[in-house]
Amino acid sequence: MSFTFNGREYNMDDWLREAVSLVELLAKNLKLLDPLPSDTDLTDAEEKEIQSQINAMLILPPFAILDFWSAFAAHHLGQLATSLRNLSRTTQPRAFSTLIQVLSLLPDPKTEPYFRKFIQSPQYADLPTIVADGFVQGIQWKRPSGPGQICGLIIHFLFWGNSTKGDDGKASIDADVRTKLAEKLGSLIGTPQFEQLPQIQRVDIERLHGILKCIQGMPEDHYLRSTRSYLEGQVDDCGRTSCDEEAVLICSKCKSVKYCGKKCQTWHWKNGHKLRCFQVAY
Fold this sequence. Notes:
With 282 residues, the protein is mainly α. It has two domains: 2-235, no CATH class; 237-282, no CATH class. The protein contains twelve helices and four strands. Strands 1-2 form a two-stranded antiparallel ribbon. A two-stranded antiparallel sheet has the order 3-4. Helix 1 (12-29) packs parallel to helix 3 (62-86), helix 3 (62-86) packs parallel to helix 5 (113-120) and helix 7 (147-160) packs parallel to helix 10 (199-217). It starts with a strand and ends in a 12-residue tail after the last helix. The model has no long low-confidence stretch (mean pLDDT 91). Pfam families: zf-MYND.
C-alpha cells in the first residue's frame, strides 16, 4: 500500500520514518523540547507554523492520521503535561490553548493505547483539573478543534482517569472546577453561539453537561467506576480484533498491546502494529 502526501509518494516503511519526523517537528514547534521562558508566549509566526502543520495532517488517509497521533502520544505526552503545568494562562494563552488543542485531537483512548495509558497514569492525575479549569477560565478555540472537542477530551479524562484523584473522590476533576464547568456549559447551551456550532460539537458539549450532573447526583464515584469498567471491557483483549482468546502475552517494546499467542501477535504486526509500536517515553 502507498499514498501521496505533500506531493511525495510513500510506502509504509517510508511513512513510518516520515511520521516520526513530523511528530518531532510538531513537538519542537510546540516548544516541548525547548520550553518557553516564563511569561513568553508563542509569536504569531510560531502559532501559524503549528496550525499549518496540524491542518496539513487532515489531508492524510485516516490510517496515516492515526499513525501520526499514535507516535505523538507515545513520545511526547509526558512533555506536554509538564508544559501545561508550567504555562501561565494569563501571559501565555496561545501556548496553553494550543497544547489543549493538541490533546483534543488525539484518538479515542479506547482505540489509542498510548493515550489511554497516559490518562490512567498516576503521574498525570492533575491534568484533568488543569484542562477543565482552562476551559472554565477561557481558552482560544483553534480549528480543527473547538469547544466540543475540548468537552470530548474532558469526557475521556472523566471516563478513563482515576476518579479517586479529585478532591472529593467522585471524579478525576476537583469538585469546584466541575461545578464551574457545569455552570459554564449550562450558560452556553441554547445561546445563538451554541446553535452556530457544528452538530458534533453541540453533542459533546451537551453530553459533558449531562455527565457532570450524573457525577453530582451519584454517591461517591459509582457512576464513573461503572462506566470505566464497561469501557475497559470494550477494549480488545487480544490485539487481533477477531480473536476472543484470553491475552497472555504483551508486546515487549510498547507494552501497550496484548496477545493470546504468537500467531495473533505476528498477524497484528503485519497488519498495522508495526507502524504504531513505540517505546513509551513516560
